[in-house]
Amino acid sequence: MLFENMTMAVHAIKANKMRSLLTMLGIIIGIGSVIAIVSIGDTMRFMISDIYKDVGTTLAYVYIWPSDGSDMRQSDYFSVDDIDRIREVYKDEITYIDSSSQQNVEAVFGRNKVKFALEGIGSNYPNVHKINIIYGRNLNEGDIKGRKNHVVLEAEGAKELFGTENAVGKSFRTTIYGDTDDYDVVGVYRKEENPFLAMVNGSSENKEGYLPESILVWPNDTIYNIRLYAKEGTDMNSFSDRFSQYIAKSKNRKREDVTFYSVSSEMGSVDQIMGGLSAAVGGIAAISLLVGGIGIMNIMLVSVTERTREIGIRKALGAKTWDVMVQFLTESAILSAMGGIIGVITGAGLVFLGGTLLGMTVVIKPMVIIIAVGFSALVGVFFGIYPASKAAGKDPIEALRYE
Amino acid sequence: MWKKKEVIPDYITQNVSEDLIKLVDMVKIYDTGSIKVLGLKRVNLTIKRGEFVAIMGQSGSGKSTLMNILGCLDRPTMGHYFLDGIDTADLPSDDLSAIRNRKIGFVFQSFNLISRTSALKNVELPMTYAHISKKAREKRALELLERVGLGTRYEHMPNELSGGQRQRVAIARALANEPPLILADEPTGNLDSASSVEIMELFSKLHNEGATVVLVTHEEDIAAFTNRIIRFRDGSLVSDTPNIPVSKREKEESEEPEEPEEPEEPEYQSGDALC
């Protein structure tokens, strides 16, 4: 009987294709936008966790920023000695700490000039951040302790500057803090492009590379910002508290003046943004589902009136109140569920299209689709109750007389 | 979840009475709010199993009202209507639906087939509401269409069939649940005379095979096919007379020997005479 009702319903919907489609529109938009926003959220979360997998989830930046808006004092900056002290005090909790220094330079080789953003790193940086070396080697302790003019460049930059990716052993000339010097390439790495990061940061003209941090901090010994990696599995929230307190004390500042910026705090803010966005789109979706549901109720009322005679025939032939009721409820549920399915296809399709254009891996969870279609069917049942009971309550004699 | 448990009282499924239709002091009053209209005045009537009866009358004579009550589409205001021994006066509408489904096969003037639905599906409809399995439904529907001479047209939609063919589909549908009573309301009213004769011959054949057929008509030559003619005027039964059907008259004239049901005919005749 259920199958009978379903085929009848599909029949009736097919008989008025255009009308049915227009009726479904509200549901299509509602379900489509829900699917789109949920999938965008899931995709973002997936991409962010993917980035953090590369960067490391225990990464944090710490600096002093007076919370009362007053100027910074000289003592608010860190020195190399400060960093060494912190490394010693927190040696059980921190796996890596450095001065988070970076310089934009112009590298010259013969006639070629390429702009590089060179990042200063400490000796065991490659242990906490993956650098995918394809030629030569990473910077080692000897390079850093000895302040050697050694660099590791990304493959694309090396190719642009030297005409070949394998630039190990070649050197270029550049100026850092006013000193022009030659720098030797000891390694070349393949930069892993994260499309999401590229989208957020915008594409940079600068190529990237690493050099010993000792070269970048030497002249003035003022470090604004320290970068650290806590031990794998550290609870970043409690660590943030303890560490900030320690820094505040050592710099004679209040706890609020220390900013501890970590990946998990960034994750929290992304969730916050997505939460706000989801609430807004959820509201729109709820309204369009409501409007869509009313549209379905309206068209079902029209359909019931149009098919008064059919209802009369069915009742005369033995259909009970419940049979007629179920027939029309099934029809409105299927109408609405079809809208839901089309909405899922449209929403997921748009997200997929956008993802493909941006080169992202799109995450669309099957559970979301099932819930969306199921919910749209429920909307159909709910808004079908009134028209269906109107149909079921018709008097067979009156209905048979209806022209 | 969707299927409500089928509860049909035993009295509906069991045939209990030799008097298929029995009206006792039956009155129907239409209450339109401001005025009350007397539809039928104290009707007493008995129709036995196996009869072929015509109910005649002008429009406004009350024959349509009677039809609705006989068809369990409406309830008497006073008195009783026993269909197969069941008093229908106080039954809830779902029970009346079950009675219509099992006990009555309707044939309407305007065919009342469901549009955009194949002949086969139309014939299956009463069996669907009787919760008969799909396979059994299809098998029986095909047999019935075969029986009314439309065996090859089961896939046709109603609008692809002629009036006579549509009425045959409707008759096949009326026979679907093997109801004891076939109730036909002006079955030839929308047909040309050739088709009308064909349809009436089909009713005669069904009657000869044992069916009880009650038809409402205002045409004398249609009523002439039946064994008994009941006339109504102004809501009252005015005459109830036996009739020698046209087919019988022809048969008597030509003495066709190959008609096997013929010996049973006098039995009906005597039954009619009692009323």
Can you give a write-up of this model?
The complex is a heterodimer of chains A (403) and B (275). Chain A has helices spanning 2-15, 17-55, 80-89, 125-128, 141-145, 155-162, 195-201, 213-217, 236-250, 263-306, 308-316, 321-358, 366-392, 396-401, and strands at 59-64, 94-98, 101-109, 112-121, 132-136, 150-154, 171-176, 179-190, 207-212, 225-230, 258-262. Chain A has 403 residues and is of the alpha+beta class. In chain A, the strands form two sheets. In chain A, strands 3, 4, 5, 6, 7, 8 and 9 form a seven-stranded mixed sheet that branches. A four-stranded antiparallel sheet of chain A has the order 2-10-1-11. The model of chain A has no long low-confidence stretch (mean pLDDT 87). In chain B, 36% of the residues lie in helices and 24% in strands. Chain B has ten helices and ten strands. In chain B, the strands form two sheets. Chain B has a six-stranded mixed sheet with strand order 6-7-8-3-9-10, with helices on both faces. In chain B, strands 2-1-4-5 form a four-stranded antiparallel sheet, covered by helices on one side.
Keywords:
heterodimer, A: 403 residues, alpha+beta, seven-stranded mixed β-sheet, four-stranded antiparallel β-sheet, 14 helices, 57% helix, B: 275 residues, alpha/beta, 10 strands, globular, disordered C terminus
What's the short story on this structure?
The complex is a heterodimer of chains A (403) and B (275). Chain A is α+β, with helices and mostly antiparallel strands and 403 residues long.
Helix content of chain A: 55-70%
Strand order of the largest sheet of chain B: 6-7-8-3-9-10
Report the C-alpha radius of gyration of chain A, rounded. 33 Å
- Indicate the overall shape of chain A: elongated
Question: Helix tally of chain A?
Answer: 14
Largest sheet of chain B: 6 strands, mixed
Tell me the helix content of chain B.
25-40%
Average the pLDDT over all residues of chain A and give the rounded result: 87
Give the class of chain A from helix and strand content and strand pairing. Answer: alpha+beta
The most extensive interface, with participating residues per chain, is: A-B, 25 and 30 residues
Q: List SSEs of chain B in N-to-C order.
A: HEEEHEEHEHHHEHEHEEHH
Query: What is the element string of chain A, with H for helices and E for strands?
Result: HHEHEEEHEHEHEEHEHEHEHHHHH
Strand content of chain A: 15-25%
Strand content of chain B: 15-25%
